[in-house]
């Protein structure tokens, strides 16, 4: 902390003049960057439409109520498809992510120069691409349907599960592993009695949490042809059936709330 000598004694200052100048220069650069980004984002904005947006929102909102509750009967099967898409995609993602996590962890990777970088690249690549983009690519390759949605959910889940799981593996107690190794245990026994008891709570918690997230994402994937509630939502939007749209949104909300409740209960029971 800099000190300035005065007639009344030393005066302690939080920053030096150079540090204060650098701080103000940083704030100025941040404000300038924000203004420039705002100009870029609004360059093609038609402000007359923006000014008219409250009236348009009120008009659409008046058409959306009351919801068409009788339409719920036609949503039961798409809802089942959405839940299955999320569940199967999560299972597939967890199955693929688990060995990748062990390859990525420093204390379990067979090669820190080859296997670990490859595993980390797979994790980063999976996390870098949104499930909606995965679904767009897979619908183009496999055609519309639940299979594309399941694989899209799985590919997105690999990075999420793999990252959190390999961090949990790296945090395991080395003393317990060494004690089991001292008994002459093999690789499978070391995994079963050394690593698994320590990472099991994290494994199940991560898996259930990812399933909860995938419930939300699977409801959207239908907008690009992956089936489920999103497909019904897109069909209703195309014909401007606003009461049906409200019903679908309510069903999606109820499903997400239920999945959140299940996720919280399971994680509380495990952890």
Which consecutive residue ranges, at least 5 long each, have pLDDT under 50?
Answer: none
CATH superfamily of the largest domain: MetI-like
What percentage of residues falls in helices of 4 or more residues?
over 70%
> Whole-number average pLDDT?
84
Strand content: under 5%
**What do we call the CATH topology of the largest domain?**
MetI-like fold
**SSE run:** EEHHHHHHHHHH
How many DSSP helices?
10
Shape: extended
Sheet with most strands: strand arrangement? 1-2
Number of strands: 2
Head-to-tail CA distance between termini: 45 Å
CATH class categorisation of the largest domain: Mainly Alpha
Looking at the overall shape, the CATH architecture of the largest domain is Orthogonal Bundle
Set out the fold topology.
Layout lengths: L2 E4 L2 E4 L4 H25 L5 H18 L11 H29 L10 H14 L2 H12 L3 H25 L3 H9 L4 H35 L7 H10 L3 H29 L1
Antiparallel strand pairs: 1-2
Helix pairs in contact: 2-10, 3-4, 3-6, 3-8, 3-9, 4-6, 5-6, 6-8, 7-8, 8-10, 9-10
Question: What does it look like?
Answer:
This protein is mainly α and 271 residues long. It has helices at residues 17-41, 47-64, 76-104, 115-128, 131-142, 146-170, 174-182, 187-221, 229-238, 242-270, and strands spanning 3-6, 9-12. Strands 1-2 form a two-stranded antiparallel ribbon. The longest helix has 35 residues, at 187-221. The radius of gyration is 26 Å and the shape is extended.
